[in-house]
Automatic annotation (TrEMBL):
Main location: secreted
Location of this chain's protein in the cell: Secreted
Name listed for the protein in its UniProt record: Ripening-related protein grip22
Record organism: Acorus calamus
Signal peptide: 1-21
Amino acid sequence: MAHAMLVSLSLLLLSFPSIHALSSCGGSCGTLNDCQGQLICINGRCNDDPDVGTHICSGSGGGGGGGGGSCNPSGSLTCGGQTTPTYTCSPPVTSSTQALLTNNDFSAGGDGGGPSECDGSYHSNSERIVALSTGWYAGGSRCGKMIRITAQNGRSTTAKVVDECDSVHGCDSEHAFQGPCRNNIVDASNAVWATLGLNTDDGVVPITWTMA
């Protein structure tokens, strides 16, 4: 199981406030960063972003059928004294899916814990590979498929899905004793970060992705 490396709470709050934003549809909020996933704060409540065109809160797509529905926490898990929400879903995948890029060591003995879910193997950090949050991993249906990741600096790269960034379970040896992933994580190898021209010391970086 892959998991993002641990970054201090204070650093995350300073550098990327929305990482700890947990308000879901209809939840109270004070700033744009108080809402989870692709939601934004409108009149003090988290709602769909009209600029992105999400239908996470509306639950129906008007005439299109099968509109987004909601992606609320399914529960919570306390690990090392910190309680983290758990998710069985992720935001809808679009042509420009908003996500958080984290860094993972997919090799044996790395911070990812056990071997990759897709093939039961460890991988070299020189490979352009990723783990996706549980909802996006979709029970392994994206295993072996390529995604395209675009950084805010304009650079993009493709990477192969080899693992799940578990948004439901954690706090054990299989998960390197880390808590569950958020529901909007693309957990990438050093090679992905390098190709995008990003510094792994930043820990968490906003990106967009889509299927390649």
